[in-house]
Known about the structure:
Layout: E1 3-8, E2 13-20, E3 24-32, H1 38-42, E4 50-54, E5 58-59, E6 78-80, E7 83-84, H2 97-104, E8 107-110, H3 114-124, E9 127-132, H4 138-147, E10 166-167, E11 184-193, H5 198-207, E12 208-215, H6 220-224, E13 230-233, H7 244-255, E14 260-263, H8 265-273, E15 278-294, E16 299-311, E17 321-327, E18 333-338, E19 343-346, H9 361-374
Parallel strand pairs: 3-4, 4-6, 5-7, 6-8, 11-12, 11-13, 13-14, 14-19
Antiparallel strand pairs: 1-2, 1-9, 2-8, 3-9, 10-12, 15-16, 15-17, 17-18, 18-19
Helix pairs in contact: 7-8
Amino acid sequence: MNNATLTLQDGTIIEGTAFGAHADAVFELVFNTSQTGYQEILTDPSYRGQGVLFTVSHLGNTGINQEDNESVKAQVSAVVVRSVSPVVSSWRATTSLPEWMKQARVPGICGIDTRFLTQKLRDGGTQKAALSTCGTSATELLKMARDWEGLDGRDMVKEVSCRTPYTWQADPGSSWVPPHEQKLENAHIVAYDYGIKHNILRQLSSRFGRITVVPAATTAAEALAMNPDGIFLSNGPGDPAGLPYAVEAVKTLINSNIPIFGICLGHQLIGRAINGDTGKLKFGHHGGNHPVFEHATRRSLITAQNHNYAVLPETLDQADVEISHTSLNDMTVEGMRLKKHPVFSVQFHPEAAPGPHDAFHLFDRFREMVAEVLHA
C-alpha cells in the first residue's frame, strides 16, 4: 500500500498508510465520536470542506450500501482513521469503503494514532490540514494548509444546495421510515436546501403529503408564492455569517407567521434573523452521543450533532425568544422557540442517521403546528 502524509497548520506531520483516492486534499480537520454510521457521515453535506477524524478504532466492515446515503455523493474532503477493515461483512453492501472513496475522489489515511490527533484538536481547537496519498511533500502540504482560506465567513452552502426546486420522492432509504399514523396528506412543506440530509426529507415525507425542496438562494417571496403550510430550514455546511441572503429570507418568513422548523444551520440562521449572533466553537460538536437537556420535559436527550458554530445566548432578546434545549457538555444553545411567532429550531439532528432516535418527537411537534393552521 502507498504512504500517506497528513500535515496540520501548526506544523504537525503524520505519516500513515493511504487508502481511497490517489489525491491531495485541503480541509478543516474535525473529529467525530460516532461508533457507527460512517456512510451517513461521509455523505452528509454539512461536512463539505472538512476532513473527518474518526475516534472509533476502525471503519469499513459494513462496506457501502444503496440505502444509507444522506446525499447523492460523498461530501467530506478526507478520511482519517486508525484502521480500515479488509473484510466487508454486511449483506447490504454493494462495494467496499476504500473502493467507494476511490471512485468519489476522497483520499484517506490510516495506521496512525488517532487518539493523539483527537486530543490535539480537543485541547488546541480545530485546525486547517492537508493530506496527500500521492507523494506530495510535507513541506508543500504545510504551505497548502496555511494558505487555504478556511471556512470562516465563506458561503459553502452554494456548493451543496440544489439548483432548481423539486418534489421529494422516496429513495432506497425511505423504507426504514414508515408513514406517520396521522400523516397530513394535504399539507405542503417548502424545505430550504442548505445541504439537506435525506433522512430529514424522509422524516418530513412520513408526516406531510408534499415536500418541495428549494435552493438556498430562494427568496421569501418565491417560497411564499408556493403556498406552503410550513417552512423547513435545513442543516448545511460552514459559517452562517457567510449567508446574508439566507438570513434576509428567514427574517421575512418569520414575519409571515407560517410554522417554521429549523435544524442545525437552519437554527443558526433563525438566530441571526432575530438579531442574535453566532460564533465558532473551539472544536465543534460531531458525533451521535451528545447529551442535551430539553427544558420543557426536563429530560436528557442523547443526540446526533455536526456543527462548528453556535448561537450566542447573550445576544438573544429574552423577550422574544426562549431557549428550549441546552448542551450538557458545554452549555451552548441547542434549541430555541420564538414567543411571538410559530417558529422553533434545534442545533442537533433529530433525524439522526446516524445516531439515537431520542428526538424524533420534534418532527411530530412540527406536524402538530402545521395541523393547527390547517384546521383553524
